[in-house]
Write a structure and sequence with these properties.
Elements: E1 12-13, H1 15-22, H2 26-34, E2 41-45, E3 48-54, H3 55-80
Antiparallel strand pairs: 1-3, 2-3
């Protein structure tokens, strides 16, 4: 591969870096890859295979999850505004 055809290191993340960016364990990122929620490609270096995940896809997924989380929090706050929970 020539330097011009090599992807920029900032354009792709390793499995570990994607997990840190999403704030989840690596196994969750593996599941997202397996379920085709996140795209990836495999680099073969010697006998090792390293997954590379586009940074933009990880950031988009993070924003999507953040929006879902914020919507759920707003719903919970709306429920709480109705008064105390009765048991």
């Amino acid at each position: 591969m020539t330097p011009a055809s090599m992807p920029d290191a900032l354009e792709e993340l390793s499995l570990d870096a994607a997990a840190r960016l999403l704030g989840v364990p690596r196994i969750v990122v593996r599941k997202l890859l397996k379920d085709n929620v996140l795209p990836s490609r495999i680099d073969t270096i010697g006998r090792r295979q390293i997954r590379r995940i586009p940074t933009a896809a990880v950031q988009a997924h993070r924003e999507k999850m953040r929006a879902i989380h914020n919507a759920a929090l707003r719903r919970l706050m709306d429920i709480g505004a109705c008064g105390p929970i009765r048991r």
